[in-house]
What does this fold into?
Amino acid sequence: MDPDYFRSYEMCWGTLGTMRPFSNFHPNRDAIEIKAALEKKDAGTLVRILTNRDSAQRQVIAQTFEELTQKDLATGVKKAVAGDLESILLELLMHPLQYEAHRFQQAMAGLGTDEETLLEMLCTRSGKQLQEISAVYQQLYKKDLEKELKGETSGDFAKLVVALLNKESVAGSVQRDVQAQN
It folds into this structure.
């Protein structure tokens, strides 16, 4: 790791785990620096820039990179790095809703289902967020998220994940039923 990393870039140890916009943000400078890093396959520079910008800033960097080079940043990352680092950097470049849809897809991919991830995502997102994620999932994977969840789970657990996915509509119907009884 570059020894100047901690001296030359803003880092506040009291805020680790909280992503905030990079205050000295210059997308053109970042895009040019990333272009050079991709040519040299300099993973350290890629990590430094992409992990110190919030999601909105990474989206601007990707757009600026494409305007400057006429190339897709994600494609450049795939050529420059591999393995887990490639996966992490590509996930950082995703729009937040795309990333959420990707997490659902990954939790259901292959043999077995990562039920813990499914529950974490379904329980910590609002009904509106889950509707947006479902729409993006449909766009990306050309599959209905609810049908995929039903196909990957069974029994009472399948009923639970579907109810959690549709929690706003379920909550609304319960509220209407309660009001109708009064």
Q: What stands out?
A: The radius of gyration is 20 Å. The CA atoms of residues 59 and 94 lie 8 Å apart.
